[in-house]
Amino acid sequence: MGDEREKLTYELFGRAIRELAQAVADDGYEPDMILSIARGGLFVAGGLGYALDVKNLHVMNVEFYTGVGTTLEMPVMLPPVPSVVDLSEKKVLVADDVADSGRTLKLVHDFCAEHVAEVRSAVVYEKPRSLVRCEYVWKRTDRWIDFPWSVEPPVVRREGQVLDS
């Protein structure tokens, strides 16, 4: 990974979401619910929810990245974990900002697979090394991505918000 970064603006993000939603619609996939992977997937899921007219949105909190290029050994689901009853027999669209290593998406996909009618994934970016090949991808890149919501440092730092590896 070089110094060059992929830079996503809010304006470009809006276009990316519309194009992702159009790809889902063109494919004929009609999800019953969108499951976002927090935190970056929240933005994606919200946009897709509006564009696809899906109001049933759920959140799965997964901790993996602890900084630029630094991760925990394995992704970890954080509470509250969605109830499998809420997922039962649904067509689920998993939404995230990026499939980097794919380990977080794989964890969520595997969690869903045993309980849902069908699970597919939509991401803004997918990297070549991802373990998961997403059905819906706006752009493929091998660069580090500067997302508009995470490029600036937090306004305040709160202790205990990131798990230590």
TrEMBL record:
InterPro entries: PRTase-like, PRTase_dom. One of its GO terms (molecular function) is glycosyltransferase activity. PANTHER family: HYPOXANTHINE PHOSPHORIBOSYLTRANSFERASE, HYPOXANTHINE-GUANINE PHOSPHORIBOSYLTRANSFERASE. Keywords: Glycosyltransferase, Transferase. Residues 12-152 form the Phosphoribosyltransferase domain. It comes from Streptomyces pini. The keyword Secreted does not apply. This is Phosphoribosyltransferase domain-containing protein. It comes from the Bacteria. Signal peptide: none annotated.
